[in-house]
Amino acid sequence: MTTDFNLTKSMFHLPEGVIYLDGNSLGPLPKAAREKVSAMMTQEWGDMLITGWNKAGWMDQPTHVGNRIAKLIGAEENHVVMGDTLSIKVYQALASALDLRPDRKIILSDSGNFPSDLYMAQGLIDSLNQGHELRVVAPEDVEKHITQDVAVTLITEVDYRSGRRHDMAKLTAKAHDMGALAIWDLAHSAGAVDVDLSAANADFAVGCTYKYLNGGPGAPAFIYVAPRHAELVRPALSGWLGHRAPFAFDLDYAPGHGIERMRVGTPPVIALASLEAALDVWDMVDMADVRETSIALCNQFITGIEAACPMLTLASPRDATRRGSQVSFRFEHGYAAMQACIAHGVIGDFRAPDIMRFGFTPLFIDMDDVNLAIERVARIMRDRVWSAPEFNMRAAVT
Ligand SMILES: *Cc1c(COP(=O)(O)O)cnc(C)c1O
User: Which of 26, 82, 86 to mutate to test the pocket of ligand 1 (most atoms within 8 A of CB)?
Assistant: First the structure.
């Protein structure tokens, strides 16, 4: 398949004059999502009322949508389910993995991980109160720290700040050699890079759908459990919709079949409708084309910015194979500079202490956008536009 990126671009609502390089944080609105959500509201919620759970298939949506996500991340059918937020899914995967390795106490992660993943691990350790330890090492040292005392590795494939990409297959193989399990967080991978969970032999994976998958703010997260573990894992969050027979209303919990047991409570039906509209765009897309185009866009941006802005230092790997779909630069006044970029129609974001982050998503960003973004950023840097006071006041969300 050759992807028609002009067509995919036309499927998004993109405000006039804006070059949106922040689809890695919140994907833009797929035009069809408006109609889809509106139709769901009136025809399903409005007219069907509670019968929508059966008639409109609301109850099956978490696995139905999970199967659509599975195709984008190389997961086997019926092994991905939707629900909750990514932080919750991290907790579930980690609790299940620790339960499968009762003789080991070490959770291995790296300092490039997104803090929420580490916080969830710390909270789980405290609740379990069985002497587990979270070992956080430098990203480049992960491999050598996968030793025989590690129960599970909890690694985010693409670093949210630098865009550095871990070698999933290699680290998973090392984990298995050492008798450990591997959990992969795909927050900055799903829809951004070519992921093949099955080929990499991952044990668990989790991710969100409001970043590169464009599901909308607060869109539900996903969790993958490898087929070999699916009937063995014990859910830590044993909600009624993960029960084998939710409508039997038994007083005792019995886990549902396979991935179903990773469901917790009532699915977010409205949010899933919006996500479905976003996934319709992905039906027209070949991930290999996305990856190839993303690399070309990122390389062009790096070359252009480095030529025009000597005050910015590349914080992402130069080697595209070691990078996700974003490019970051360090700059002492990065916060103010990013505010100035946003005011001038180039939306990226800032990550403390000094990272200016730009995401590249071929579905709606093309080479002309990249060249225009380079021009605008170059002018802001050259003329020190960022030094104006209005760009130096911090907002709550950066
Ligand atoms: C974005 C992100 C999260 C956010 O978690 P939520 O529960 O969806 O807010 C967690 N982990 C990683 C690695 C992320 O990139």
Answer: 86
